[in-house]
Design goal:
Number of strands: 0
Strand content: under 5%
Largest sheet: none
Order of helices and strands: HHHHHHHHHHHHH
Oligomer: single chain
Structural class: mainly alpha
CATH topology: Ammonium transporter fold
Number of helices: 13
């Protein structure tokens, strides 16, 4: 008789062609069109800050993994992705030492001190951006960006210019079209699901209509498309179940518009995403509660 052994290992038990490295590589590819546009429009300053952020994030990750005696993870490209996303949130003329400080906060404090990739409770780039804004508000503010003009009732660029670009702003907000092209690439590659981006963008549009505003410009301004596709879809800090993703996306859009209308921050998108990151465990817990209640009701009917 053949002796078959059952070997039990830790989850996940399903293996496919995608892994962390290939996923992060595709994210970097998706972010490339915006890098090209921002470099052409803003010059070498934008490109240098992206390079500094990438190298700093990779360096901090390598150093922390070595100090903590953990397996090196720099080859999975997650630190590089964090560097690019953080750089896209920054002004093109931000001093290099501030860029490096932001990378330290994102990688060392938010990511590695909580255990590394998969253990961080919040989006590292969003948290680092908020820390830099609160520390250096003057340096982190770019004059005459579309969202500031919108908030202060200034002369706005046309919807076509706001969508195609280039517009004044942060490195990752020069062209919504370039960001959207990368986002569609990620959806087509099945790296992200469209649920959160669509709910986020739709909520911004609906609230704009309710407030009597043209919905196109609020969607194109202030990094909504960038946040929706590249930050709000982080699988570590967003709900796992489909209904939870809908709640998360709607919450991001609602907080973004509320803070735009009531606050004076130059960009409310990172704040909105960080707030919803904090709510994510509670959303997941609530979704599991509803799921088990449904199972109990189904068993009661069958029994």
């Amino acid at each position: 008789m053949q002796n078959n052994k059952l070997i039990v290992t830790r989850a996940p038990h399903f293996f496919g062609s995608l892994n962390t490295t290939t996923i992060m590589r595709d994210v970097l590819i998706a972010l490339l069109p915006e890098l090209i546009v921002s470099t052409v429009y803003l010059g070498r300053a934008a490109l240098f800050r992206v390079l500094v952020c990438v190298l700093s994030c990779v360096g901090f990750e390598w150093a922390m993994r070595r100090i903590l005696g953990r397996k090196q993870t720099v080859k999975d490209l997650s630190a590089a992705v964090t560097g690019v996303i953080l750089a896209y949130l920054l002004p093109a003329k931000l001093p290099f030492y501030m860029c490096i400080m932001g990378c330290f906060i994102a990688i060392v404090i938010v990511k590695q001190l909580f255990g590394g990739l998969g253990q961080n409770f919040a989006n590292p780039a969003a948290t680092a951006w908020i820390a830099l804004l609160l520390s250096f508000p003057d340096r982190m503010t770019v004059d005459d960006t579309p969202i500031e003009l919108f908030t202060n009732a200034g002369a706005l660029p046309s919807n076509l210019v706001a969508f195609v670009g280039p517009v004044e702003g942060y490195i990752g907000q020069i062209s919504v079209l370039a960001l959207l092209a990368g986002g569609i690439y990620l959806v087509a590659r099945k790296i992200i699901e469209p649920t959160i981006p669509l709910c986020y963008i739709a909520t911004v549009g609906v609230i704009s209509l309710v407030m009597g505003l043209d919905p196109v410009f609020p969607i194109c301004a202030g990094g909504v498309v960038f946040g929706a596709f590249y930050m709000a879809t982080d699988p570590v800090t967003t709900p796992a179940l489909f209904p939870g993703k809908i709640i998360f996306g709607i919450g991001c859009g609602a907080f973004t518009m509320i803070m735009r209308l009531l606050c004076t921050f130059p960009n409310s998108m990172p704040f909105a995403i960080l707030l919803m990151n904090i709510f994510t465990p509670h959303i997941d817990r609530f979704m599991r509660y509803l799921h088990f209640r449904k199972e109990d009701r189904d068993e009661a009917r069958l029994g």
